[in-house]
Description:
This protein has helices at residues 5-19, 24-38, 53-61, 149-159, 180-194, 219-231, 234-237, 248-255, 259-269, 273-279, 283-287, 297-320, 326-337, 339-349, 354-372, 379-391, 393-406, 413-422, 430-433, 442-461, 467-487, 513-538, and strands at 41-47, 78-82, 87-92, 98-99, 104-105, 108-109, 121-128, 136-140, 170-175, 202-207, 243-246. The two termini are 22 Å apart. The protein is α/β, with parallel strands linked by helices and 543 residues long. The longest helix has 26 residues, at 513-538.
Amino acid sequence: xxxxVSSDVDSVLSAASELYRRDSTVLAVLEQLRTRLHEPLRxxxxxMVKAGKSxxxxxxxxxxxxxxxxxECTRVVTWYRYSATPTITMHPRxxxxxxxxxxxxxxxxxxxLDGLTAEEVEWIDVGWPLEGLKSTILIDTPxxxxxxxxxxxxxxxxxTPESSPSAADAVVYLMRHLHGADVHFLEAFRDTAAGAAxxxxxxxxxxxxxxxxxxxxDSLLSAGKVAQRYxxxxxxxxxxxxxVPVAGxxxxxxxxxxxxxxxxxxxxxxxxxGDREKLLxxxxxxxxxxxxxxxxxxxxxxxxxRFGIFGVRLATALIRGGVRSSTELSELMVxxxxxxxxxxxxxxQFQTRAATLKARGVLLELQQLLRAxxxxxxxxxxxxxxxxxxxxxxxxELALLATARSDGLPVSDADAAEAQRIAGVDGTDAYTRxxxxxxxxxxxxxxxxxxxxxxxxxxxxxxxxxRATIGVCHVxxxxxxxxxxxxxxxxxxxxxxxxxLTGGPADALGQDAAEQSEQDERRLRRKKGWNRLAALxxxxxxx
Length: 543
């Protein structure tokens, strides 16, 4: 829907390179920015200690690569990117990068620090021939809230630096319970990832969700209710676009299911109901010596380590329900794990906006570089940055979606739902935004977008529309303008009405002081959210 922002940024970088052609230090940074612009989306996996970050990363990769133990290497930021041949490169904080040997233990990589401590290593770069890494660079980060302050500091320094943009384009944030540290981290990531624009580029994951119901077969249903409650939390709602429950261990085990494991699970499924229920009553009972099954305690311990007690219970239930192959079992277990919902969300909300998200990070770093190394003749570069930032509308869409979740939108319920759909909550292709099926007639799409433009134009020009309402209309109309261009409607919107400030919260008479104070606080928070969106609609989304 947008112009080729990557080529525009490339032109700006080329203009800057020409001006700094005799400054090798600046040229090296510009080359790094050009590399970032053309590489895949950077998606960081973050969260508290023991939240299951490496396990989820393995599930997303579909291969057990990332170490999941508590060794020294898990205290270092580790990048996983596509490479035709496997490579591991360690980047010390002092000295040149080192190529490391590739060793695996039980399938997982053994990442040696070559005699250095975690504090002496900046990051590890793993290149691996996996198809999924062609479109996304996955970044595993040390746990936040670690007993080691240095370990937490490495993640914060990488994702939420104080004086520069975040190195990640978007983040998948894992939480088991909602802590103040989670909120503080996500607030910092929002601010460093998008500057004052406060665009939300994060999705929350309720991790290890199979443990919420103590491993019962309905655990993920309970986890879904908890995730919905977190989504409505006033502090969290404005910081993540969604909260998805994911059983990471189940997803990892399912995506890497072995035929021998399927045979063992099939034997458990074939036990009599009484024997099976006694065996699966708890993890401790499952691994005790037993004459109920021919599976040795060691085999059962391995199954427990790979799938958890919930995964074993689910697998046996699915096999009893008619599953006849390891491939079919793998697919159904992945579906149950929540992994597909997470991947679809990342694809719909981050991958489709990858060019703009990457351009945002590059231009923020470029602006910082120009301030640090000023010189004459930069007017063309600054003008190029200005032109690109004015067109970076997709960031305003993300801000609208975040505001809709946290504070609601200052329009009717029907208009609020339509605004979110037009902004891409269900997908970013033109027909989905217009509420049409993929096979709808192009003429119908052109008529629909014209009707929507007229509706939102009238709403924005209403004498009753306040600043917040006009801000929403401005974002929606800009999205509709791009949709109109995509479907060939050729509709020009013209200028949007000026934005006026709104008044204070309405009074709440007749209620006790505590209740009134709480409601006023919610109204004030909602008002602030609306005003942020209205301001963003009128200014550069990178600032």
